[in-house]
Amino acid sequence: MTPTATEASGIRIQQLRKSYGSLEVLSGLDLSLAPGHIYGLVGPNGAGKTTLMSTICNHTFPSGGTILVDGENPAENAAVLERMCFIHEDQPYNDAFSVGSILHVMPTFYPDWDDALAQGLVARFQLPLERGPRKLSRGQKSAFAIVISLASRAPYTFLDEPYLGLDPTAREIFYEELLADYGAHPRTIVMSTHLIDEAADLMEEVIVLHEGEIVLQADVDDARSSAYIARGLADEVRAFVAGRDVIAERSLGRILSATIRGHVTADDEEKAAASRISIEPVSLQDLIAALGIHTLTSALTTENR
Amino acid sequence: MNPSMRSLRLYLSNKTYVVVVPVITLLAMVVVSVFIALVMGIVVGLPLPAAAEEGFRSNLGSLTALPGFLISVGALAVNRNFAMALAFGSTRRNFWCGTALGFVATSIVTAAAAVVLLALEKLTHGWFVHAHAFDVVAMGSGNYLKTFGMTFVLSLLSLFLGALFGTVFRAFGAVPTTVTAVTLGVVVMGLVALGVWQRVRVIAFLADWGLWAVVAIVAALVVAVAAASYSANRLATF
Questions:
Q1: Minimum Cα–Cα distance from B87: chain A residue
Q2: Using a CB-CB distance cutoff of 8 angstroms, which residues of chain B are in contact with residue A106?
């Protein structure tokens, strides 16, 4: 019997290693993903995001360590793997197939396939059903992957850079549809992304992967509320932050932005107002930067430009 | 639904490619054979006289028309369909079993088409010009069962050969795939050389056992190639 999101026990990974020859992509990674949440997997290119998802889904073999999905090893385990859907960002399709013919066969793979949702998404993304996937534009390929991933209703759905090539309108459609469908049918969704702040509202938990290791795993709301930014004239800000746990500073002329660990109190707000300092919530990307994952942050910032 | 059936459905979801095109390939081979007969007829007259018709019974078009296309079908199926099936939550084993069933389906349809075309060829006495495409020595000289058997195992061998190349590529990469292809080529050439060297024994063997011996040998090759493809598929990655 297929476990529901609430019956499922999630994904447990211990000491996962994956090497390609002498290149170690995942190095002794430990990770626990409780079922029924949306996870954002962030990190620069080459951090091991796709490799991690591929290894969980048994698309590639681990070099060491253990993976358990709902308490079972997913390797060649039909009962586990049929609860998964992972369309790669560069997913190969058979050139002889059209978008329509692939969608037609999908209910065979997924008993909970929602055809109405698939058709609705196809219409919203304006996907040409008769065209072969290879002839789709980059954005259409991403949209096609989103259609399959969401309509599959797979209890474990993995999205690999799902917004790649999508224009802002299509990205908005994706975010809207993902949240609506997830709300109606909770399941475990792991989404790799570079757009940390844009996708932050979708994620319940953020996992930062860097050089094959998890460097941060935190609830997004907790993470955001764990720090705040004080911005104002440098001298005023320096006076304000005295004695506080400043984890990052950024100057622009006479303006200083200080990222401070902790929660803002009413007293803090009063003092800030008196000193003409604005207190602002910290963005997820700024927090990741402030936590000292400098290499990662500069890579992400570069890619987002 | 049995998980293997999902990959079978995936394989069959483009029937034009895996069912219709092989049949059209056979039809095209008939057209080419008739065209050759018409060209010959310019010299010897139409319908072809007995001597020319006898020469046509050595036509190998029915053996050579299919393998190229079917090898590509097999290779694409285990390469692209593999990537799709894995993305859609299949195991390697179930994917391979479902796809192998698909190969059997393609081979049955192709063999059945060969039998129908043989019947039409006989009915029209060589497509009205005494041309022979299926009523040939290589297909059992007009024996329906032998034509079916030969076309079936040949189709299956071609599909599994393609599957072997495709799975080796997925499991080990381009260089081992090339090595496999070259090795198989050397083995085939060696077997041909062996056959020519021992032609007296080979002819005697074929005289005793007839085309069924060839069918059995090809069937044995199918099993060997399928087993190799299955083993490679267990190691294939995305």
A1: A86
A2: 88
